[in-house]
Amino acid sequence: MIFSSLFETAWHALATHRMRSFLTMLGMVIGVAAVILMMAIGAGAQEMVRGAIQSMGSNLFIIMSGASTSGGARVATGNAPTLTFDDADAIRDLKDILVAAPVSPGSAQLIYNGVNWSTSVFGTTPDYIQVRNWPMAAGGFFSEADVRSGARVVVIGQVVANELFGAEDPIGKIIRIKQAPFEVIGVLAAKGQSLDGRDQDDTVIVPITSAQQKVFSSSIRNRARFVMAQAVSAKAMNDAEAAINDTLRSRHRIGVGQDDDFSVRNLTALAETAAATTRIMSILLGTIAAISLVVGGIGIMNIMLVSVTERTREIGIRMAIGARRRDVLWQFLIEALTLSLIGCGIGLLLGVGGALLVSSLAGLPVSITPTSVLLAVGVSFLIGVFFGFYPAQRAAGLDPIEALRSQ
Amino acid sequence: MTAPLIEVTALEKDYSTGAGVFQALRGVSMTIAEGEFVAIMGASGSGKSTFMNLLGCLDRPTRGSYRLNGQDVGRMTSDQLAALRNREIGFVFQGFNLLPKLTALDNVALPLMYAGMAREARRQRAQAVLERVGLGERSNHTPLQLSGGQQQRVAIARALATRPRIIFADEPTGNLDTETSRQVMEFFTQLNREEGITLVLVTHEADIADYAQRRIRFQDGRVVEDVTRAEVAA
Fold first, then answer.
1. Distance separating alpha carbons of residues A67 and A263, to the nearest angstrom
2. Alpha carbon distance A339, B72 (integer Å)
3. pLDDT 10s digits, A372-407
4. What is the ipTM metric for this complex?
């Protein structure tokens, strides 16, 4: 028996029952497409989270003004800034802390040359750029002296640069932030989405003093909504957290048993949680998709069993004219394999197409890895063999006389 | 004299049924020489079909021995039996038993596929055999596009494809009208005479059996008559 003849025979049998073959394949098509799509979405989400974590900076704390709980009741953090610039300096001086930057966030409308753009404004100190591990694309960052003097200088994100300036070079230009003129001295490198989904490049950064005097129309001075701090190493995170707590409690004269008027969050730990969640989600998606693949395989077995019953007479004829049992076994096995592999091929195309569609329509990041393609093809092959074997064996085990007699 | 092509000795075949063991064959012994044309007759349930299945290597005897061309068929594996059916034996059935979705050519080429012949070679051979049965023009027709007589000729071509020594024909004219039956039987006679192919024919019609040189009648699992045409005439 020649192998190519087997494929010819299988192809002929499948082509004879086009509708049935198509419907049987559909199970595999959907299964494989689901696996490819789900793994692509899962991998894309993981990549996004990984990117967001990298862009966040490493070994980070965020110390929020205001208590997270007050007398047992939860309150919104940061309603009244309790952290002072001096607190930030004190945190920076701790031995486990590398740098710390007070931040005063807000939003404002920018105007340049008749074009306006609303964006988030961060008032902070030069340490911020180091804490966030944020390189410059052009120009430079402002200095400590700029912070002390309340200089009207601004560093802008990529999105703002594009929206206000387009192809023009922004360095040295004057933009208005809430009417106050600021000189653009630097452009930040692109950073992409943060963990909570904000576009980090849609922002401008000004000295914290200038922000409070010229941009935010509040009476708050010398205080920050939050302080971002970077520990010297991942190992020092626990000691650093304890040191921050001790320092702030003593500076704010908070006695034993009293509630903190600040809260310290380990951002790196939060990020790791987010990464783990994403990983679990993608495993879950993949598992559900894999189940549909198995269901597709069962569909193949079902149809192959029907086919064997229907074609009992054909099997008898083939045996009478000299087909050995293994010829019959191969015939049906190859038929099942052909079904599952063609289904897999169509499913691959649909899955890849669907992934591209999802990424372009929903804006979700997707990533089709060679692993997921190989996995889908390999699993389809195994499913074809596994679910095709039993019906094929049943066909091969038929008694030629009884098979010939059946109608 | 060389050994007979077919030699059966005390052949028995039991079937277990719900009611107990049914003895389809109760000790059949005979020889058939190469080149003979034998008609096997008998009522239904007489054991003639069981006997044909055993001779055709589709089944194995319960007791007794069957030697085909000197080889003990009872000791063969199912693969060896399949090879025998493929190379030494051709079958022609009452219901033609062609694969309805395949063309005449592909039907005839099918045994050659199991013989391991390459695609082009088997198509050429199949075409040649179809021409021999007078259907060279219709090789691309499917069985449904052919008349009963033509279908039976395709089936004969399929039986001839691997150049077997024996053809077993089970009621080959059962589904055909008188004129077509006559044509088929004359073709069988011609094959037997000109090519020396051994023919074993199962039929219940006396005028069909008359084409054969030898007539064997079964009753209740035993041979009750075994005569040559010369003896009948005498």
1. 6
2. 42
3. 889 888 988 998 899 999 999 999 999 999 898 887
4. 0.93
Closest-CA residue in chain A for B159? A321
pLDDT exceeds cutoff 80 at B233: no
CB contact under 8 A, A321 and B83: no
The C-alpha atoms of residue B197 and residue A92 are separated, in whole angstroms, by 106
Q: Give pLDDT, residue B82.
A: 94
Q: At what angle do helices B104-114 and B78-87 cross, to 10 degrees?
A: 130
The number of beta carbons lying within 10 Å of the beta carbon of residue B106 is: 21
Per the CB < 8 Å rule, is A313 touching B85? no
Measure the CA–CA gap between A210 and A226, rounded to whole angstroms. Answer: 17
Q: What angle do CA B166, B171, B176 make, to 5 degrees?
A: 120
Partnered with residue B13 across adjacent β-strands are B25
Is the per-residue pLDDT at A56 higher than 90?
A: no
Identify whether the C-beta of residue B224 lies closer than 8 Å to the C-beta of residue B31: no
Asked whether the beta carbons of A64 and A381 are under 8 A apart, the reply is no
Domains contained in chain B, CATH given: 1-88+165-234 (3.40.50.300), 97-163 (no CATH)
Rounded to whole angstroms, how far apart are CA atoms A217 and A220? 9
Strands (E), A257-366: 262-266
Q: Taking CB atoms and an 8 Å cutoff, what residues of chain A touch B110?
A: 318, 321
Beta-bridged to residue A65, according to DSSP, are A262
Distance CA A290, CA B201 (A): 57
Q: Nearest by CB to B97, from A1, A9, A317: name it.
A: A317
Is the predicted pLDDT of residue A330 greater than 50, yes or no? Answer: yes
Q: Under a CB-based contact definition with an 8 Å cutoff, are residues B29 and B191 in contact?
A: no
Residue given tokens 């006997």 in the structure block: B51
b/e for A20-34, b at 16 or more Cβ within 10 A?
A: ebeebbebbbbbbbb
The string over B40-51, giving b where at least 16 C-beta atoms fall within 10 Å of a residue's C-beta and e elsewhere, is bbbeeebbbbbb
What is the rounded CA–CA span in Å between residue A91 and residue A87? 6
Question: Are B79 and A325 inside 8 Å of each other by CB?
Answer: yes
Residue type, B49: S
Read off the pLDDT of each residue in B160-164 and give the average, rounded to a whole number. Answer: 94
* A327 in Cβ contact with B109 (< 8 Å): no
Element (H, E) at A328: helix A325-361
Q: Calculate what percentage of chain A has a pLDDT beyond 90.
A: 46
